[in-house]
Amino acid sequence: MLFNFRLFSKVYYAISLLALIILIGTVGFMLVEGYTLSEAFYMTILTVSTVGFNEVHPLSEFGRIFTSFLIITSFGTFAYAITAITTYLVGGEYKKYFKEYKLHREVEKISGHVIICGYGRVGRQAVADLSFHNKSFVILEQKESIIHELSVKKRFLYLDGDATLDENLKKAGIKRATALITTLPKDSDNLFVVLTAREINPHLTIISRASQSPTVKKLKIAGADNVIMPDKVGGSHMASLVVTPDVVEFLDHMSFQGSADINLEEISFNELPEDFKNKTIGELNARQQTGCNIIGFRAANGEYIINPSADVEVVPNSKLFVLGDPSQINKLNELLGLGSH
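Now predict its structure.
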């Protein structure tokens, strides 16, 4: 709703009080002084605004008493109403509310998107990678300084709110989303988000951050498909650079973003054209036609096969993992009619 009560409550309240005073004054002058409706309304406006023109008709003694009380009760109300309205217009609050309304409208239009809970260090990296892949997403953040940063940049869709609350997840379109990434600092908050998200959308892919090892199991029980410990991943990567530096350098040289010399892509069964479904890897002939290598396969039961043989059949719910340089990946996408990944 564009002019919802929550956003403009102060203005609505001020206008309502002002209207009530005018109504009381108009009715009062009609009863006390016998004025017509237009005369009573005009006299009330003169009194409330303290303009100070002459009375429509000379006031009776009781009329002067009524006018005195009307001035006393209306002066503060009139000043409050003018101040409230002026603050919204001059102070720019109405711009903030219309901007928030516009963001909500844009979020309502998207579907198949990713919800990112928390825009900290981990959340920022997730946003950068999703942006590179042109994947639509919505950031859910409640820290005031970060919200201000996002509003200044005007680059991403975001909502100001606590991700642990059901209504905020629903505002972010969780029922229409395909995935949720929660990167909140506290494991307890991530656990709550996972529980809530899984309950609202059972088909959602949920990826959660964890700081403590014991929390990993709890998050998976709660419904997280994957749990990442940034500190553990970073530490393992550094140790690997000591033990097997060349292997790690090679893996770092590979990119999942399409910008490096070697790229790794995944292709699900549903993405394949009908002519390529239920065929063996050998029959796909990817190496000869595009130069790409199929280096991995995930079977329908979730089992992973490294360097699958040519007789492995591509069946429903399976996935292919393909390695190649950017030009080879593009050829593969063109062959399969997938466009650029």
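The chain is about 55% helix and 15% strand.
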